[in-house]
């Protein structure tokens, strides 16, 4: 396996449209890196440039000690798993798995051993004599992974490989792929992985680190816990987490008792945050995750009063949508904590957990509440 480096990589199309804006990213040897972001953020374009399926118009891509900008895909030492599996329909599973080795004219015994080894690792031994049309979606995906694995590439590339599967099968395959990555590392043959998805659940549960992208820019690269707890900006804060973070316009005042004003309501700022932002005052964006809002009776001190507009009962928890001064806050409440489920039109209050508050610069949207940490 090898380290992957992108240095000031750009992609500009003939029309003049710039899709990727000089990004820098290093994926360590044996690391599972996830590229995530909304549609059109250039995550798949970035993956295709690594693979050599898209030419780069600026910067440098290195795999190990080689600059691969001008190296054709087949000689880059990569293997790619596509969204549509891309299996050869007329070939049995065993021949799909071994196709790359047969192209390289490897000895038959080596090919047979490698096919058996990969099929055992992925638990698809009983599928070797089947054609792709005889496979379920999950089985076809495992064959596609096996075809990449058998090549022993320097870098594995996954382009939204689970998007065609139903929710239950996606959850199953997430576990299988991450378990495979851990098993290979434990066996002394670590796999360097770049995995593209638009699904933040896949990103959070699979990646060693996650690269969040927006409109061809990298917004933050970090491990899942850091992205959730310490988002660098309002975009990352709103993109990572389900339901998404509540982010609204507010005013921060740090004279005397530090406080935040939202509409005509005021809540005090956590003492530590107030000290770190003692020189800051004026318009900000206030952020709080739905899981970090406590449901309280109307009139509770240091809480925001509002009216329930929507109740989403999910069994183990309830998503409450609460209108506060024309803005909707979402609060996640464990259902077993309630004696009665609130109804549309009920008056309630929401009390933010003080140290869980995020404040973002109104204009740059950088997370100013991380200052001094």
CATH class of the largest domain: Alpha Beta
Largest sheet: 6 strands, mixed
Q: Could you tell me the mean pLDDT?
A: 91
- Number of helical regions: 9
Assembly form of the protein: single chain
Low-confidence stretches: none
Proportion of strand residues: 25-35%
Cα distance spanning the termini? 35 Å
For the record, the CATH architecture of the largest domain stands as 3-Layer(aba) Sandwich
Order of helices and strands: EEEHEEEHHHEHEHEEHHEEEHEEEEEEE
* Total of domains: 2
The structure class reads alpha+beta
**CATH homologous superfamily identity of the largest domain:** P-loop containing nucleotide triphosphate hydrolases
Work out the number of β strands: 20
Q: Biggest sheet: strands side by side, in what order?
A: 6-7-8-3-9-10
Helix content: 10-25%
Protein name: Oligogalacturonide transport system ATP-binding protein
Membrane topology: Peripheral membrane protein
Keywords: ATP-binding, Nucleotide-binding, Transport
GO molecular function: ABC-type maltose transporter activity; ATP binding; ATP hydrolysis activity
Give a verbal description of the structure.
With 373 residues, the protein is of the alpha+beta class. It folds into 2 domains: 4-237, Rossmann fold (3-Layer(aba) Sandwich); 240-370, OB fold (Dihydrolipoamide Acetyltransferase, E2P) (Beta Barrel), CATH 2.40.50.140. 25% of the residues lie in helices and 33% in strands. It has helices at 43-51, 93-103, 108-121, 137-149, 167-186, 200-206, 224-229, 234-239, 271-276, and strands at residues 4-12, 18-27, 32-36, 58-63, 66-67, 78-81, 155-159, 192-197, 209-214, 217-222, 246-253, 259-262, 265-268, 282-288, 293-296, 304-313, 317-324, 327-334, 347-352, 358-361. The strands form 4 sheets. The protein has a 6-stranded mixed sheet, sandwiched between helices. Strand 4 and strand 5 (66-67) form a beta hairpin. Helix 2 (93-103) packs across helix 3 and helix 2 runs parallel beside helix 4 (137-149). The two termini are 35 Å apart. The mean pLDDT is 91.
């Amino acid at each position: 396996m090898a380290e992957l480096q992108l240095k000031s990589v750009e992609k500009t199309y003939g029309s003049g449209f710039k899709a990727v804006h000089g990004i820098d990213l290093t994926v360590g040897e044996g690391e599972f890196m996830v590229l995530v972001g909304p549609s059109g953020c250039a995550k798949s374009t970035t993956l295709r440039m690594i693979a050599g399926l898209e030419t780069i118009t600026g910067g440098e891509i290195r795999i190990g000690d080689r600059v691969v900008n001008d190296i054709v895909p087949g000689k880059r030492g990569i293997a790619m798993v596509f969204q549509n599996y891309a299996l050869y329909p007329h070939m049995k599973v065993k021949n799909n798995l071994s196709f790359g080795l047969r192209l390289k004219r490897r000895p038959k015994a080596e090919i047979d051993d490698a096919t058996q080894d990969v099929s055992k690792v992925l638990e698809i031994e009983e599928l070797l004599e089947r054609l792709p049309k005889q496979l379920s979606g999950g089985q076809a995906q495992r064959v596609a992974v096996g075809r990449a694995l058998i090549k022993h590439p320097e870098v594995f590339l996954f382009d939204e490989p689970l998007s065609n599967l139903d929710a239950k099968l996606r959850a199953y395959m997430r576990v299988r792929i991450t378990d495979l990555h851990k098993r290979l590392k434990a066996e002394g043959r670590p796999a360097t992985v770049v995995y593209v998805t638009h699904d933040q659940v896949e990103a959070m549960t699979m990646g060693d680190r996650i690269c969040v992208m927006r409109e061809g820019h990298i917004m933050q690269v970090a491990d899942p816990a850091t992205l959730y707890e310490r988002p660098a900006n309002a975009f990352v804060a709103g993109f990572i987490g389900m339901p998404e973070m509540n982010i609204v316009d507010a005013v921060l005042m740090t004279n005397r008792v530090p406080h935040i004003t939202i509409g005509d309501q005021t809540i005090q700022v956590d003492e530590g945050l107030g000290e770190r932002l003692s020189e800051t005052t004026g318009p900000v964006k206030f952020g709080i995750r739905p899981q970090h809002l406590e449901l309280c009776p109307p009139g509770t001190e240091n809480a925001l009063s509002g009216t329930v507009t929507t109740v989403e009962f999910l069994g183990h928890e309830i998503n409450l949508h609460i209108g506060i001064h024309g803005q909707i806050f979402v609060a996640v409440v464990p259902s077993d904590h309630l004696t009665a489920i609130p109804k549309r039109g009920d008056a309630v209050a929401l009390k933010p957990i003080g140290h869980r508050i995020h404040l973002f610069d109104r204009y740059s949207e950088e997370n100013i509440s991380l200052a001094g940490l």
